[in-house]
Amino acid sequence: MEGILNVVTIVMVALGDAVFAVLGVMPTVIGFWVLCQLLGIAMLLIWRYTSNQDAIGAARDKITANLLATRLFKDNLAVTFRAQRQILWQSGKVLGYSIKPTLIMLVPFVLAMVQVGLRYEHRPASVGETVRVQATVKDGVDITDQSLRLELPAGVKMAAMPCRIEALRTIDWRLMPEQAGVLKLRLDGGDSGVEMPLHVDNGFTRIGSRRGGGFWDRLLYSDQPGIPASCAFDKIQVFYPTRSTPIFGVDVHWLISLLVLSIIFAFIYKPLLNVRI
User: Fold this and answer.
1) Fewer CB under 10 Å: which end of the chain, C or N?
2) DSSP 8-state assignment for residue 242
């Protein structure tokens, strides 16, 4: 599983970097709108080629015909009830036809959302801003062992003494960056160490806030390979500030904005791509 996750991470990060290398030349707002359109079109194409378009079209046409019947024969209760039963039945069939393409779409869509989240979920730390770094050690490792330490690169200083919590198996550091850039933190423990990048005032960029951990940590929050088995640390997390996305004076989470706009663009492009949903 570790090897598979490493391959998935490498491939998806490379694809994400390629896409955002193009979007990155645009203003952030324009790039976000273009991204939503691309995702909307991608969803439509996946839906078109993985669903039974003829069956969905036939069911939709029957729903339309029975809706028309309820209006034309509204004084005939028998016809109206029969048309309403057909509307419910055909709607259920459309829902059934939607299960397969939805499940197929789920995997690439989640992987795409991870890459978008690596760019929009967090912003880099600022020079002079305190940043919290937390490392979780593996079971059986003595957390009081002073060889478990964080080595700071030039441009970063310790803002407070490390906090070791034995019950949680965690070590917390408070750092204060003094220069911009991608600064490499090194955590030494066990027979090997591991590096973790610290992003400081380096603009709109990919920010993986975690390295190591369980399946979901690796899949959803990391752009780094796994931690070597010989290392005493199980997971490393940098607590970056959350990126603000104000819309009409309200701070809307990027995922909500992306989903809503992607669906809107999907419906806009649906007639152009001749897709039945």
Assistant:
1) N
2) B
Residue ranges per domain, the chain? 2-121+249-273, 131-239
Distance from C-alpha of 166 to C-alpha of 142, rounded to nearest angstrom: 8
| Residue 154 DSSP label | T
Q: What is the DSSP letter of 204?
A: S
State pLDDT tens for residues 219-228: 889 998 899 8
Q: For the CA atoms of 175, 121, 168, 152, what is the dihedral angle to 10 degrees? A: -20
Place of tokens 């090194």: 186
Half-sphere exposure of 241 (CA within 13 A, CB side): 14
Please give the pLDDT value at position 246: 63
Does the structure show a pLDDT above 90 at 78?
no
Contacts for 139-148 with beta carbons within 8 Å, 24 or more apart?
A: 139/169, 141/169, 141/189, 141/190, 141/232, 143/169, 143/170, 143/171, 145/189, 145/232, 147/188, 147/189, 148/187, 148/188, 148/189, 148/232, 148/233
